[in-house]
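Supplementary Text 2. Reproducibility record for the structural model of the 225-residue chain.

All settings were left at their defaults, and a single model was retained for analysis rather than an ensemble. We include the record here because the model underlies the residue-level annotations in Supplementary Table 4.
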Amino acid sequence: MKYKYELHSHTAETSQCAKITAEELVKKYKELGYSGIVITNHYSDFTFSLKEMFNQKLRAEHYLAGYREAKKYETEDFAVLLGIELRFFLNGNDYLIFGVTEELVEKMPFLLPMYLKRTSKFFKKNGCIIIQAHPFRPYIYRANPKYLDGVEIVNGKSSKEENEKALKWAEKKNLKIRTAGSDCHRESGAGISGIITNEPIKTNEDLLRILKNGEFEIIEKNYEK
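Retained model, structure tokens:
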């Protein structure tokens, strides 16, 4: 049996640019035959109010709102996991963080003024992996591979050329973990990509093991649509 998972998605409860609620997102992916989803809402200066930026409790509550709502609709055959799409104040780069827990979000420092070297150390210390998302979009530069675990080689909102460049860069820099995701912000963007596995993913431990071991297939984007 094969299982499909979405690794890059957003909900309107947390991500300002998302136009789909957590309930609608989970419902749509169930309809599309997926076995689970990772909620990777934006963690950026567009996510938080000024009050939330300087209040750890409020910041965590707002960030977790979309995930917690989606988690209500998790079932035995559909997993909902927590991730992060992080963007620093410094530039327009985005990084997907996998292996995230609610407890980690509640205790972690305010990340936006930080930089990749320091943040990579923090997340790796806490058992997470860091993937550079859509690295060939305009105004994005490729990060130092020593601070990454991998790269997103298929992004549902990126062009064929951008995704092909991402794969070549991953090969050149020997980045072993190569992920794919729809980058879903609305219903029409659901189910464009993701991964296929031979076993179900129920926990962060399952997800990290499968990604690290390369035990998955990429769902290629259909560029003709």
